[in-house]
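@channel anyone free to eyeball this complex?
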Amino acid sequence: MLELNDVHCVIGKHAVISGVSLQIGEGELVCLLGANGAGKSSLFKTISGLITPTQGTIEFEGRPIHKKNPEKIVKLGVSLCPEGRKLFPRLSIRKNLMMGAYTRYREKSQTAKTLREIYELFPILEERADQEAGTLSGGEQQMLAIGRSLMCKPRLLLLDEPSLGLAPLIVKKIMETIEGINRGGVTVLLSEQNASMALSISSRGYVLENGHIVLEGTARELAGNEEVKKAYIGA
Amino acid sequence: MSFFLNQMVIGIQLGSQYVLVALGLTLIFGILDISHFAHGHMYMIGAYLLYIVMVLGGVNYWLALVICMAALSIAGVVVERAVYRPLRGQPHINSFIAAIGLILVLETLVRGIQPDALRVPKPIDKNFSFLGINMEVQRLIVIVGAIVFIILLQVFIKRTRLGTAIEAMSQDREGAALVGINVNRMSALTFAIATALAAVAAVFMAPLAFVSPEMGSVLVLKAFVIVVIGGLGSMKGAILGGYLLGILEALAIAYISSAYKDVFAFGVLIIILAIWPTGIFGGRD
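replying in thread with the prediction:
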């Protein structure tokens, strides 16, 4: 479904991604592990068109997307729920969600159906539909960010650090929701610093260090790897 | 009492002009983080265009309004594309210098072609009296027309998909790109709307004043003060600040001296800023 071949990215004078190659099959839930500054967010921004790679190719469902702008990539079915959420703080929750369906403006009844599905997934968002997004708690904002990313009916969902700064109970709920989204047929690429949590719900994973993929394998293999344990699980 | 009411009406009319220009500025600032100092000169171009279309071309005033709005919308898109877009992501001083350059180019060009001030005739050259207020019909056109355009803008921003996209983009540009909003197209649309509002202000005000190359210079300074007073990027702030400045100016002219109108008006506005340093509405709405 998604294939990156030898992708390089430079921001300013710094190489943030150096020769990354990875593949994600349809229906998979794959995690991307790495410390702060490893290049996870830059890689996600590159896939979603916010950063143009200086070298290499990115294909989604067989089509090259590495030269497309974010609008076209969203239309193709790739949605990024970014680190820091990037919500519209002074718009209502409902308007935030509707903006998530910006590219589906001709599908009014389908959009309304998706909105109902999001409200079923996160009932708190429906209860507070008219409240400004900026007034929500961190966990609620994360739910809204995921909900907004789902409004465009993506086939590939990129989740960048969804647990960052959240209480453990909320993180558990978010992870369960991500599993549920994946079971519903959406392919997920999940970036996390919380490696044990990410590996517990993923089928495969990659480890990113200084813009390079240094390890890859099944979730079980990575969870059992001594280096991963030492660096990311703390065992 | 009737003198006071007459001055209030003049103040509201002045404020209407300020609001239309300040709304454009605040929209551009909110979306693009650009201090578009050449906005006043786009207003000046609008007034000259009215002269060309209406006086030289013999076109009806209301049709001329539509033509000026359309022409300046296109001019706004060209300015965004050619002047500001290449500077996106660069230090603010770059776009500031580009704006100054644009001001010099526009003013010099117009001065070269038509150095003398021009008069645009009023479409309805009549006065009327109501509740002791004696006013020209053109002033009523400015007041009512501004209200109509303010309402239209509010409806567009708050009730339409494109308007909400503009608002979303002003709150988080990257977030807007990630939901599939074409940020370049939206920037161009914002410039088109803002510049069309400057055209509306010019068409309304031109029959009440001389059309001259420098007519936008002071106006844009006042509009910037209004935008800062209201809260950068806040439309509510621009509306309130614009009317406030207009009324303060008119009262200063009536009760103090026309020579000190700006001192009085800006003095009060400085006091407002001392009380609310981030403007009355403290940010974008």
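from a first look: The CA atoms of residues 139 and 152 of chain A lie 21 Å apart.
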